[in-house]
Each structure stands twice: as C-alpha cells, then as structure tokens.
Design a protein that fits this description.
This protein has about 260 residues and is of the alpha/beta class. Helices cover about 50% and strands about 15% of the residues. Strand 2, helix 1 and strand 3 (about 50-55) form a beta-alpha-beta unit. Helix 1 (about 30-45) runs parallel beside helix 3, helix 3 (about 80-100) runs parallel beside helix 4 (about 115-120) and helix 9 (about 205-220) runs antiparallel to helix 10.
C-alpha cells in the first residue's frame, strides 16, 4: 500500500505531501492519522525547523474529507461519525495550528472542505495561480467539520465567511489572498520554490523565538486583549531564560550573524 502522506527531509525543512492523487488527495482516516504521526516525528527532530505541506499530482492540494468513508460512519452511528470523522479532523487542524514549528501550505490545486480547512489552520500559505478553494459542505447537508466555521470567519470576517459557507461557491487564489487565507499567489512552476524560500527566511532566526511567537498568536486569537498581552509576557519571559536571547543580543551589538542551537 502507498503511504498516504509522503515525508522528505530537505536540510532543515520537512516536506509533507498528501499522497492520494487518484482521489484528489482526499483526507481519509488513515491520511489524517499518518499526518498526525509525522508531525509528532517532526516535532521531536531538532534538526527540522519548518514544515511545508502540499498535495501530490497536478490537480489537487486536497479535495477534503473522504466522502465515501465518512458516509459509512454517519450511516452506522452518529457518535461514531463525530468520533471518527469530526474529532479526528479537528484534532489534525488544531495540531497544525498550534504546531511549534512554522507550517507552510503550498496549495497546488483544489482545496475544498478539509483541504481549505488545512489552509486556514496552518501558519502561512502560498497558492498556485491554478488553486481553487471552496467550502462545499453545505452541498451534502453538513457544516464544515474540521474547524471551518471557526477559523474562516476569524481570517476573512463574518459576512465574507458566511457567504462562502452558505453558498458553497468556489473562489480563486486572488480572493483567498484578499481574505488573508494565503500569503501570496505564484505561478505553479515556482510554487514549491516559493514555499521553501519563505521557510528559509524564517529559518534565519531563533527557532525558540519562532515557537514562542506561534504560541502567543495562536493562544491570543481566542483571548481578550488583556489575556493576550499576558500570554505575550509569558512567552517573552520564557525567551529571556534561553541562550538564544543572549546570542541574538550579543550578535546584534557585535554586528555579526547570530548562531542559534539547532541551526
């Protein structure tokens, strides 16, 4: 059997490829589980500082959940459907959102349903000019299940998100950029190169500082401003106790390039 998610390590960057091109890289239960297992492996690998996630083939990033599979769960039992489909998908996107190393989606084609929700949850995203997005769950009589009703309104605003959630209409990469769903739109032939270039710009800096920034932003989005500022202070205090702060400050004063552990 083929691996449903391919893993490749390129210097300090992990490349993960959703690998069901014959199914438009649909997210079946095995794919979700493998992605979570690989993220655990990557988090434990101190040599890796960033992750790029893309889809196999030239048609899709991911067409979303595997409808044939979760239909059977729904028909068998509601509790099973919630446990096996909804909670599994939410666990996966929450893991991507809070992952302590920057995760960049390279959206190379269709990003519907769960594929769009992955794009919403990762820290950064680059889209091909041929990318197509949609929140089509309403077409099969369900709401989004991997966090789409929560993250898209936070990114795009309530009214723009509701238009997409309630119509199921497709939208292109330029609108995704306008709404803050992706950081940039590039020709397909340089998509991965653009994602790697973005990762390299991040990897110039302290990996501990990157992790603290991700934590502060992720936790702070769901907090009041007062709570968010407390989270920011906590993350600052954690950095003050690290060697990276001293190295960064000494390097700045000496006008040299800092050398961080793990780089």
């Amino acid at each position: 059997m083929q691996d449903t998610v391919l893993y490749e390590k390129k210097d300090r960057i992990a490349l993960l490829t959703l690998n069901r091109p014959e199914k438009l890289n649909a997210l079946d239960y095995a794919t979700n589980d493998r992605l979570l297992a690989l993220l655990d492996r990557i988090e434990a690998d101190e040599e890796i500082g960033a992750v790029i996630l893309t889809g196999a083939g030239d048609r899709a990033f991911s067409a979303g959940g595997d409808i044939h599979e979760f239909t059977q769960s729904i028909k068998r039992d509601t509790e099973e459907a919630v446990r096996e489909f909804c909670r599994r998908g939410q666990r996966m996107t929450a893991r991507l959102e809070a992952f302590p190393k920057p995760v960049i989606a390279a959206v190379n084609g269709i990003a519907f349903g769960g594929g769009c929700e992955i794009t919403e949850s990762v820290h950064l995203a680059v889209a091909s000019r041929s990318a197509v997005f949609a929140k089509p769950e309403i077409n099969i009589g369900i709401p989004p299940t991997f966090g789409g009703t929560q993250r898209l309104p936070r990114l795009a605003g309530r009214k723009r998100a509701l238009e997409l959630l309630l119509t199921g209409d497709t939208f292109g990469p330029e609108r995704a950029y306008e709404m803050g769903l992706v950081n940039k739109v590039v020709p397909g032939e340089i998509l991965l190169a653009s994602a790697f270039e973005m990762a390299e710009r991040i990897l110039r800096h302290s990996p501990l500082a990157a992790a603290r920034i991700i934590t502060a932003v992720t936790r702070g989005l769901n907090a009041t401003i007062e709570e968010g500022l407390l989270i920011e202070r906590e993350q600052f205090a954690r950095m003050c106790a690290s060697d990276d702060v001293i190295e960064g400050l000494d390097a700045w004063i000496a006008r040299r390039t800092p050398v961080y552990a793990g780089r």
